[in-house]
Amino acid sequence: MSITAVQEFLGKVAEDPALQNDLAKALEAESDRQAVANLAKSKGYDFSPEELAAEVERRQQEVAQRQEAGELSDDELEAVAGGELIVALTVSGAIASVGIGAATLSALKPKW
Predict the structure, then answer these.
(1) Which of 4, 8, 49, 89 has the fewest CB atoms within 10 Å distance of its CB?
(2) How far, in Å, CA of 4 to CA of 46, rounded?
(3) Which of 54, 52, 21 is nearest to 36 (CA)?
(4) What is the DSSP secondary structure assignment for residue 107, as one 8-state letter?
(5) pTM (2 decimals)?
């Protein structure tokens, strides 16, 4: 289990539309963090719900800092303007820009 596995999983989600759909379904679960961790494990990525939440929080903070500095991409600006911050932010490379398929996931509002 590791933050690296979370980052790798989110990177894969950013480039795989089928996995994006699976993630969207997992986020609908009552225990969405655990559902996402279970989905990731089924795809070969082993991390805890807590590690997932920590990485998402780190990425949200990074986007907030970049927003304050006026450094958001067009996709990030759209997500922020809509009052939403996507789990799949194209944060950190594939995900570093906070947008794992911003159009696809922008409507999702994680409970965490």
Answers:
(1) 4
(2) 10
(3) 52
(4) T
(5) 0.65
